């Protein structure tokens, strides 16, 4: 992580993506936030839910996320089960990029007729595809990141 404010802007440290600090207010570690992981999770959940045949699906065109034209998909469960991951999911597919750029899930309303409770919400902003990045661009040992080596007492 970088950008430690004015006083510590020069300091670069490595943070375990599954640590309490990194996971604060997150359901998944940063290593799972990519579009490919989101699509994979959506497919897995869709296959599980389709087998139950207990959801309604609504498509809507001309939705917008951060000014980008999208196709929206709203999945709402009709039957509440103890192992339900969500009550309602909304996915927004960018019409130009053809990838999801916004995703949100809701839990069942606390009481009948109430509003569903937001569980998670992710938006991919300023997304650029096919940038030619390599594995080295994501390697913690990349010298250009200037990560400090842990002291012997840190190990």
Description:
- There is one protein chain.
- This protein is an alpha+beta fold.
- It folds into 2 domains: 32 residues, no CATH class; 95 residues, no CATH class.
- It has a 5-stranded antiparallel sheet with strand order 1-2-3-4-5, with helices on one face.
- Strand 1 and strand 2 form a beta hairpin.
- 7% of the residues are buried.
- The model has no long low-confidence stretch (mean pLDDT 84).
Radius of gyration: 20 Å
Tally the helices: what do you get? 2
**How many domains make up the 3D coordinates?**
2
Mean of residue pLDDT?
Answer: 84
Strand content: 25-35%
What characterizes the major β-sheet? 5 strands, antiparallel
- What class, by secondary structure content? alpha+beta
Low-confidence stretches: none
Ends distance: 19 Å
How are the strands of the biggest sheet laid out side by side?
Answer: 1-2-3-4-5
Shape: globular
The helix content is 10-25%
Number of strands: 5
Order of helices and strands: HHEEEEE
Which tags fit this structure?
155 residues; alpha+beta; 2 domains; five-stranded antiparallel β-sheet; 2 helices; 28% strand
Secondary structure elements and pairings:
Elements: H1 20-23, H2 35-52, E1 55-65, E2 68-77, E3 88-94, E4 100-107, E5 117-123
Antiparallel strand pairs: 1-2, 2-3, 3-4, 4-5
Outline of the structure:
The protein is an alpha+beta fold and 155 residues long.
């Amino acid at each position: 992580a970088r950008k430690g404010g004015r006083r510590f802007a020069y300091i670069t440290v490595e943070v375990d993506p599954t640590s309490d600090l990194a996971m604060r207010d997150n359901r998944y570690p940063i290593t799972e936030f990519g579009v490919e992981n989101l699509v994979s999770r959506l497919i897995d959940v869709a296959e599980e839910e389709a087998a139950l045949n207990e959801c309604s699906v609504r498509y809507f065109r001309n939705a917008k996320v951060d000014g980008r034209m999208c196709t929206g998909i709203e999945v709402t469960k009709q039957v509440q089960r103890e192992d339900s991951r969500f009550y309602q999911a909304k996915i927004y597919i960018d019409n130009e990029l053809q990838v999801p750029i916004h995703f949100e899930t809701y839990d069942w309303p606390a009481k009948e007729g109430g509003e569903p409770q937001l569980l998670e919400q992710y938006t991919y902003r300023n997304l650029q595809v096919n940038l030619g990045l390599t594995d080295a661009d994501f390697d913690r040992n990349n010298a250009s990141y200037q990560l400090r080596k842990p002291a012997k007492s840190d190990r």
